[in-house]
């Protein structure tokens, strides 16, 4: 594990953030390059890429594909000039579905048959919620969001299958309609909630015991609101055990040049 | 060519329409099973399916993928029980990029490596325009819509590349904003227009000479409005000359069970 946590630098632009990570800074990307879309990263050999692309096509809520690269190319239209092998702060390497290491760059692991998938991230809609005066409790509490496995299965694609994973944010009841409308206008970053109010409707037994992330404290009058979560494809991938995969490390996303507004419908 | 044009039957539901086509009726699908989404069909060998799926992911306006089948399966979640080999009224068979025949069913041509792509169709948004009291001149004039090649290139994907093809509908100037808003809420069936008002901005020299379809007469005060068109993937495909492909015949679409409302954002 490499964890050279640096002093908070000025990472006000996407290119400045990527340059800092490329130079070795390892730090979560949340709050950096504000106003710009951050993305989840999944890299797979071409042999598995069809399954992943089809999984995304069939499950756009949990797997909103923002860009998919040509095999062997570490470049994306979402950030011309960026290099996906070096420009994230921290990567995870998986073999046969097992996490084997975390590394700050993957140049030495790159292969000509690798395809990179950039997937929408809830950071984008959390900012939109804040812009609409909807409180985001996990940000207020300085915690990772609470995530849960559900009893809903994704549509399988080839060798990839798995349950829908959701994130939960407690929202004041009178602001639930605003939260639904705001995120409903962002279908490429998970879109409208998949469920409001009744955890048992998703097969979630205990909100205080999330499967991923941290428990979030609700305020009086808050209602639990559930969105499809970008952990879904990672969970499906790890259950399906491809021989080789690379992902971003949680919270250490790819910072794109795309303004958040690019993914907000009018 | 098979053209057993039947007397207009009652095809009020998607399953009745598909059963009629399965039984041999060859007729355009426009106006049948009203309120239900119709789809363009492209069938390709698995070897070319990655290129097509990626082309759709990268060019969602002209190539909005509604469903993609498993290799060898003629079934789709958009119409459980339907058979894509028999349930369209008329198919086109292509070899090395050349149209070789039109046939009313493709059972004998089916192979275990074929993947079917169902692609959103402008019929869906024309109904939405009518619902919003926006006149649709091509329907008024009983003509196929006018379509034009443009000077805009699609993002290539593997062996697939080509220019954006657009359809044009003349819209009264005061209703252009309504037309933009209504179709903008339907991103899975081509979405908002790509251009309004200035054909030369798309490299179109003469509106009276469309590259596909028929010339549409504008009324006084109409403005030409251009939408990304589902002919785009077919044009790219034929230019790229895959050894084998099957598509629907123009106007002879796949009638799905999906209500049009499924593709309208609130």
In short:
The first copy, chain A, is of the alpha+beta class.
Assign the CATH class of the largest domain in chain A: Alpha Beta
Please write the string of helix (H) and strand (E) elements of chain A.
HEHEEEEHHEEHEEEHEE
What CATH architecture of the largest domain in chain A would you give? Answer: 3-Layer(aba) Sandwich
- Biggest β-sheet of chain A, characterized? 7 strands, antiparallel
Strand fraction of chain A equals 25-35%
The helicity of chain A comes to: 10-25%
Instruction: Work out the oligomeric state of the chains in this entry.
Output: homodimer
CATH 4th-level superfamily of the largest domain in chain A: PSTPO5379-like
Distance between the termini of chain A: 43 Å
Describe the structure.
The structure is a homodimer of 266-residue chains. Chain A has helices at 14-22, 46-58, 122-131, 137-140, 176-184, 231-240; strands at 36-45, 65-68, 91-95, 98-103, 114-120, 146-153, 163-172, 195-196, 212-213, 222-228, 244-248, 254-259. By secondary structure, the first copy, chain A, is an alpha+beta fold. Chain A has 2 domains: 14-121 and 238-260, PSTPO5379-like; 123-233, PSTPO5379-like fold (2-Layer Sandwich). In chain A, the strands form 2 sheets. In chain A, strands 1, 2, 3, 4, 5, 11 and 12 form a 7-stranded antiparallel β-sheet that branches. A 5-stranded antiparallel β-sheet of chain A has the order 8-10-7-6-9. In chain A, strand 3 and strand 4 form a beta hairpin. Mean pLDDT of chain A is 92; it is low at 1-7.
